[in-house]
Amino acid sequence: MSQLNIIILAAGKGTRMHSSLPKVLHEVGAKPILGHVIDCAKALSPDKVIVVYGFGGEIVKNAFSQENITWVNQAEQLGTGHAVQQAVPYLEDNAKTLILLGDVPLVDVESCKNLVAQSTHQLVIQSFNKADPTGYGRIVRSPDGQVNAIVEHKDATDAQRNILEVNTGIMAMPNKYLKKWLSRLTNNNAQGEYYLTDIVSLAVAEGVSVSAEITKDEWSVTGINSKSDLVQIERVHQSKIAQNLLNLGVTLKDASRLDVRGNLTCGRDVEIDVNCVFEGNVILGDFVKIAANCVIKNAVIADGTKIAAFTHIDDTEIGQNSRIGPFARLRPGTTLAADTHIGNFVELKNAQVDIGSKVNHLSYIGDTTIGKHVNVGAGTITCNYDGANKFRTVIEDGAFIGSDSQLVAPVTIGKNATIAAGSTITKDAPADALTLCRAREQKSIVGWQRPVKIKK
Ligand code: UD1
Ligand code: CA
Questions:
Q1: Fewer CB near the last or first residue (10 Å), C or N of the chain?
Q2: Does the beta carbon of 126 sit less than 6 angstroms from any atom of ligand 1?
Q3: Are the CB atoms for 399 and 414 separated by under 8 Å?
Q4: Mean pLDDT across the stretch 363-372?
Q5: Which atom of ligand 1 is found nearest the CA of 79?
């Protein structure tokens, strides 16, 4: 295999986005448009990825500082040919080059592989039959079907404007030809630009063969120029993700009402109801059920757990067979073991909850360690912040926190301790005792017996 260089053209301003953000940094599936193109390039295992940037300069570069990219500045945008000329010093003599456009996020890896494979001795162009070809470069073929030229819309005759086969801008060729042709480009055309597309007639004049591969997948060659294009591509991207999940056996109540802005990995027999948004990396185990209107970000949810409607989860791990929500909010640093129950209007932040514990109603639990089989009553607040510093609350195994209690951290509630409802606890509560603090003083009753369920 000969070496592969990939040039991504991304210097355009994107005026029609009406935004101060460079066009290629607008996002599809929460990833910059250019990021999708870079991912496609990387999937082709190239020796070099060159991005030609211009508008937005450093902002674009900085957004991809983790990537191994050769950045080339095109200070003035004098056309696609001029853009590629800027990359010439970085092209390897014996390599091929694939040219991609930085504003085509759904570019398809397999079609690119095919173009590259065919470009060993020729120029190969990705074309598309467009119902309304206005604005595009037309593929001009001779009667026997040979590609003769690409004529830009503004330079085309009326007859040429009737051609529906258009240039997508994606092409591949050997570098030895590309370098030669680029040095011969002129800007004698309607737009006064150096057109990359003029290399087609230069190839034909030299007797180098040119072929155009017609793709049927319009979205894979569609560039984004406006917010309207962006929202359409977003839907296409989302429907592809939904289809993949369905193919893997995930049940979606409505494939058109799911948004995955990152990576969603699902086990077997997962069900997802409508209007859920998944962000970052989310892993759902077998038999996990997500009810309607949940937002779940960077989370691992183990087998059999059910998330009820309107739950918000961020940077949290949840063990097996737990019940979360409706209307629960799990904030970063939270870890829930198996069989935990977190109910409505409960907020957990940096809380570690062990097996079988329950916080079912209207509570704030922050910077807290909860042991096994603890019951936290309605309206319990861990007061973790004194206005300057944060402190931890520890609730040991088997403790019972009565409703409407405040636990003022740092504080520890001992094993099997009971806190009476309405208490404000400021000192450690001993194990096995009832602690109550409703009036001015806090007292503990050692040897207190919990009520026993009355048999009916
Ligand atoms: C170009 C093609 C046209 C094709 C169309 C597909 C040329 C002359 N024309 O049209 O045949 O049908 O794409 O969308 O190549 N860019 C730069 N620097 C420049 C100019 C453009 O980096 O100086 C980049 C843009 O950021 C964009 C890409 O090149 O990613 C295409 O530019 P754009 O202006 O959208 O395409 P056209 O020139 O209209
Ligand atoms: Ca243009």
A1: C
A2: no
A3: yes
A4: 98
A5: 23
- Please tell me the distance from the alpha carbon of residue 52 to that of residue 36, in angstroms, as a whole number: 16
> Hey, what are 335's tokens?
């870890």
CA 84 to chain centre: 29
The sign of the dihedral angle between the CA atoms of 195, 199, 205, 210 is negative
CA of 228 to the centre of ligand 2 (A): 19
**Residue 440's pLDDT band (cuts 50, 70, 90):** low
Ligand 1 centroid from CA 97, angstroms:
17
- Checking if the pLDDT of 1 tops 70, the result is no
Rounded distance, CA 2 to CA 85, Å?
Answer: 22
- Please write the tens of the pLDDT for every residue from 231-254: 999 999 999 999 999 999 999 999
For residue 193, which atom of ligand 1 is closest to its CA?
8
Contact partners, residue 202, CB within 8 Å, separation at least 6:
181, 184
User: Is 102 close to ligand 1, i.e. is its CB under 6 Å away?
Assistant: yes
Does residue 266 surpass a pLDDT of 90? yes
Query: What's the average model confidence in pLDDT over 62-71?
Result: 96
Say yes or no: CB of residue 196 within 6 Å of ligand 1.
yes
Q: Helix crossing, 109-118 with 33-43: angle to 10°?
A: 50
Q: Is 74 in the pocket of ligand 1 (CB under 6 A)?
A: yes
| Spatial distance between the Cα atoms of 197 and 209, rounded to a whole number of angstroms | 15
- Hey, what domains does the chain have and what are their CATH numbers? 3-221 (3.90.550.10), 227-446 (2.160.10.10)
By three-state DSSP, how is residue 333 classified? coil
237 CA to middle of ligand 1, Å? 23
CA of 78 to the centre of ligand 2 (A): 9
pTM of this prediction exceeds 0.90? yes
More confident residue, 444 or 215: 215
Rounded Cα–Cα distance for residues 202 and 182 (Å): 9
Model pLDDT for residues 273-307, shown as the tens digit of each residue: 999 999 999 999 999 999 999 999 999 999 999 99
The conformation of residue 197, written as its DSSP 8-state character, comes to G
* Whether residue 52 has its Cβ less than 6 Å from ligand 1: yes
**Which atom of ligand 1 is nearest to 136's Cα?**
12
Nearest ligand, CA of residue 137?
Answer: 1
User: For residue 81, which ligand has an atom nearest its CA?
Assistant: 1
Burial class (CB in 10 A: 0-12, 13-18, 19+), 264: buried
Catalytic residue numbers, as ranges: 361
Which amino acid appears at position 48 of this protein? K
Those residues whose C-beta lies under 8 Å from the C-beta of residue 400, and which sit 6 or more positions away, are 374, 375, 377, 417, 418, 419, 450
Q: Is the CB–ligand 1 distance for residue 265 below 6 Å?
A: no
The pair of structure tokens assigned to 50 is: 């060159």
In single-letter form, the type of residue at position 156 comes to A
